[in-house]
TrEMBL record:
It comes from the Eukaryota. PANTHER family: FLAVIN REDUCTASE (PTHR30466), FMN REDUCTASE (NADH) RUTF (PTHR30466:SF1). Keywords: Oxidoreductase. This is Flavin reductase like domain-containing protein.
Length: 237
């Protein structure tokens, strides 16, 4: 027969362990609260904002000061690869993004950008399985594509997906969408494409190229270089 003293003695270490776990969890919660801001009813917040709005608003405010290069992304509702004429007619859609970048160059070049859903351009990419990216130096063209969400893209884009002459195009890349590499995160899709063709616009002059960037709610152009460095971009160690 097991005595009451033996049962209590057996349960005591478990009780202490549970208490230790809760104490550690509470300590972790307090650490997170200090890193996020003041606490109100157990949740982090900043003045004038609801608790659950804190992180998005703070990140948005911080990222506004980070310069981002601007790129035009276009696509249309007919395939332009796989034995289909690149000049085949199709309804063009396009948008301005600040997230275009290379993913890797070897063994094959891949690029990526983010697109907010829902999007007609995204729908066009899923149908044609491809898109064209264009670097620009014209704030007028950039703003036209922002306003182009309501129409007007057709007049600025050729059937190939490239910008028409005189719109400030610097370079272009025709890319094949990699659906299996792309992923939905929140209300955005991270789109990945394999570069199939690339070149410079005929009316762009390399010596005068000044890539358009966006920061603090304004359009900017890159200034002069302030130091020399390697041609290779920095990589994570």
């Amino acid at each position: 027969m097991i005595s009451r003293f033996a049962v209590i003695s057996t349960l005591r270490p478990v009780s202490l362990t549970v208490q230790a776990v809760f104490k550690r969890a509470d300590h972790t919660s307090e650490c997170l609260s200090h890193s996020r801001g003041k606490r109100h009813n157990g949740e982090a917040h900043i003045q004038g904002q609801r608790p659950h709005d804190f992180m998005p608003a703070e990140v948005r405010s911080l990222m506004r000061s980070v310069p981002h290069a601007l790129t035009i992304i276009t696509s249309h509702h007919s395939p332009i690869y796989s034995e289909v004429d690149p000049e085949a007619p199709g309804e063009q859609h396009g948008l301005l993004v600040s997230s275009f970048n290379t993913v890797t160059l070897h063994p094959k070049p891949f690029v990526s950008f983010n697109i907010k859903l829902p999007s007609k351009t995204y729908s066009a990419i899923t149908v044609s399985r491809c898109f064209t990216a264009s670097g620009i130096d014209s704030p007028q063209t950039a703003q036209a594509f922002v306003n182009g969400k309501h129409g007007g893209v057709q007049e600025m884009v050729e059937q190939s997906g490239k910008l028409k002459n005189g719109l400030g195009g610097l370079w272009w890349m025709r890319c094949e969408w990699q659906e299996y590499m792309s992923v939905k995160i929140g209300d955005h899709m991270v789109m990945v494409g394999r570069v199939k063709e690339a070149g410079r616009y005929e009316d762009s002059a390399r010596a005068e190229d000044k890539r358009l960037i966006y920061a603090d709610g304004e359009y900017w152009r890159l200034g002069e270089a302030i130091s020399s460095r390697s041609d290779e971009p920095p990589e994570n160690e």
